Amino acid sequence: MGVSPDQSVSEDFASLCDRFVRYGALLSSYASSSGAHPPTPTDSAEQSLTSLRAALRDILAEYPEGVKGAMVKPLLRRRLSATFDESEYGFARLSDLLRALPDVVEVMAGAQGGDITGLTR
């Protein structure tokens, strides 16, 4: 697992890690789990969320039958950045982040866990 300050992360280093988290994302995740109010999204965070939505739409367009939950994070890391982590958006689990985007994806709970099956209307 790799951890780095927000401004000094190397994409090469992050891609070598099994899991990579920016330090700021850890603080945000800790604040939300401890009951503190999460920070107000910045313009760059809003742009990042827009990019995430676009990447998810593109992924779902490539997989019209749906995407297994285990495939989602690697696909997002390929499209967005090797440093992608749901904690950057204030969520401890990827499934929670995905459930917070019902305008983009529908997370279906199956026998094997949550699967992304398609776009919602």
Uncertain segments of ≥5 residues (pLDDT<50)?
A: 36-43
Structural class: alpha+beta
Strand content range: 15-25%
Mean pLDDT: 75
- Number of beta-strand segments: 5
| Anisotropy-based shape | globular
Name given to the CATH homologous superfamily: LOTUS domain-like
Radius of gyration using CA atoms only: 14 Å
**Major sheet:** 3 strands, antiparallel
How many domains, in number, for the residues? 1
CATH class: Alpha Beta
Note down, in words, how this protein is organized:
With 121 residues, the chain is an alpha+beta fold. The protein has a single domain, classed as Nucleotidyltransferase, domain 5, CATH 3.30.420.610. Helix content is 45%, strand content 16%. It has five helices and five strands, in the order E-H-E-H-H-E-H-H-E-E. A three-stranded antiparallel β-sheet has the order 3-5-4. Strands 1-2 form a two-stranded parallel sheet. Strand 4 and strand 5 form a beta hairpin. The radius of gyration is 14 Å and the shape is globular.
List the defining traits of the structure above.
single chain; 121 residues; alpha+beta; Nucleotidyltransferase, domain 5; three-stranded antiparallel β-sheet; two-stranded parallel sheet; 5 helices; globular
Q: Short description, anyone?
A:
With 121 residues, the protein is of the alpha+beta class.
